[in-house]
C-alpha cells in the first residue's frame, strides 16, 4: 500500500523543467522505472516521458511519449514496445486557429 501511495504522490507532483526519474521495485522483484524530461526555448516546449515495466522473470514492456509544442501546434507521439519486441506508434497533431 505504501508503494502505491508513493506512485500516486509522484504522479500528482507538479511538472518541473529538467529531468526526473523514479524506480519502484515490488516484493516479487518486478520493477517500474519512469523518467521525464522537459526542455523549453523561445516559443516551444518538448516533453519526453518514458516508462519501463520489468517483470520478476525478466520480461519487459515500455512506453515513450514525446510532446512537442511550438507556436499554435502540438504534436504527440506515443511508442509502445511489448514483451516480444513488437512496437506500436501513434501520432496526434493539434493546431489551434482563431
Summarize the structure.
This protein is mostly beta strands and 98 residues long.
Describe this structure in words.
Keywords: Signal. The chain is elongated, with a radius of gyration of 16 Å. It has one domain (about 1-95). The protein has about 100 residues and is mostly beta strands. The mean pLDDT is about 85. The protein has 1 helix and 6 strands. The chain has a 6-stranded antiparallel β-sheet with strand order 1-2-3-4-5-6, with no helix packed on it.
Which descriptors apply to this entry?
1 helix, elongated, 98 residues, signal, six-stranded antiparallel sheet, mainly beta
Strand content: over 45%
Q: Provide the spatial order of strands within the biggest beta sheet.
A: 1-2-3-4-5-6
Spell out the helices and strands N to C. Answer: HEEEEEE
Number of strands: 6
Region (Disordered): 41-98
Biased composition (Polar residues): 72-98
Signal peptide: 1-19
Keywords: Signal
Amino acid at each position: 500500500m505504501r508503494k502505491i501511495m508513493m506512485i500516486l504522490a509522484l504522479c500528482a507532483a507538479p511538472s518541473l523543467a529538467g529531468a526526473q526519474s523514479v524506480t519502484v521495485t515490488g516484493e516479487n522483484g518486478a520493477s517500474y522505472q519512469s523518467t521525464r524530461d522537459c526542455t523549453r526555448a523561445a516559443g516551444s516546449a518538448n516533453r519526453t516521458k518514458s516508462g519501463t515495466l520489468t517483470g520478476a522473470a525478466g520480461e519487459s514492456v515500455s512506453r515513450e511519449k514525446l510532446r512537442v509544442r511550438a507556436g499554435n501546434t502540438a504534436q504527440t507521439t506515443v511508442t509502445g514496445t511489448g514483451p516480444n519486441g513488437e512496437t506500436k506508434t501513434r501520432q496526434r497533431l493539434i493546431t489551434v486557429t482563431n
